[in-house]
Amino acid sequence: MSAGSVAVAVIDDDVPFWDLYELGVVCTVFGIPHHDLADPWYDLRLCSARGTSAQAAPGAGGFALRTPYGLDALAGADTVIVPSVPEACVDGGRELPPELLTALRRAADGGARMVSLCAGAFALAAAGILDGRRATAHWLHTEELARRYPKVDVDDSVLYVDDGDVLTSAGVTAGLDLCLHLVRRDLGAHVANQLARRLVVPAHRPGGQAQYVDLSVPAADDEGLAPVLQWATGHLDRPLTVDDLARRAGMSPRTFFRRLQAATGTTPLQWLLTQRLARAQSLLESTGLSVEKISELSGLGTGANLRRHFTLHFGITPTDYRRAFPPAA
């Protein structure tokens, strides 16, 4: 259970307004200490080619950024994040800086976890880090990413892809989803959930959720959908069915299925399973209850059923997960 160091590769000294969101997300999640949740918190480093020598460009449509570190500081970091690349680099009108690609390769060769948000995938792809791997980017850019880098298995249908030591995300809020996923991997579900609560965002959107849906999060006045989902998360120990939820929402099962899929990009049964596993994950971290009892409280039935789904979903057994994130004394 470790936070470690996070080095952020800032491509340009002048950051356009559009790219500020992804950079801001990274700085907010990893750069603001929450010592009451985890101590030590992450050590964040902002790195650019010119470092502290960057000067503002007259008439720039964004902000001039002076970073404390140069690109050489990417090497040795536990995690390296490329939050974005200039639009001209996405369109092919401008090459990415060779010194950036060299620094990224050096960091990857040194064992760093490599991460991109939105169009930052173009930098990892240009450095060869995504060759032979599944990756994603904003759906507006995935076609171009696949065309220019045919060795990359581009998936345009997901929020983010976790390929172990290389992770990529779609654009805008999907970048926040991936950053919280990293916190969840490093520090556990409880810390990630508490941080998400402070940021007033959903605690967990699975990476496999669709990028483009009518509503990523149901609105509070969604004619019965949001209230029934909130009710369901408080009654996960019950054997809930789609018919039960549809009846409580005052809809037919078919309408409820369609509305939930449009709002979350997933089916009602998959949504329920995700919530049950999240509850089990939280209980493993926060209590000393047996796996059998946790399975019962999360609505997964038997301990064997919990072990099967937990291992398939998280790639680790409940026992090993508890060993990695033991309950606080």
TrEMBL record:
InterPro entries: Class_I_gatase-like (IPR029062), DJ-1/PfpI (IPR002818), Homeodomain-like_sf (IPR009057), HTH_AraC (IPR018060), HTH_AraC-typ_CS (IPR018062), INH-QAR (IPR052158). Residues 226-324 form the HTH araC/xylS-type domain. It holds the Pfam family HTH_18. One of its GO terms (molecular function) is DNA-binding transcription factor activity. Keywords: DNA-binding, Transcription, Transcription regulation. SMART domains: HTH_ARAC. PANTHER family: ARAC-FAMILY TRANSCRIPTIONAL REGULATOR, HTH-TYPE TRANSCRIPTIONAL REGULATOR RV1931C. This is Transcriptional regulator GlxA family with amidase domain.
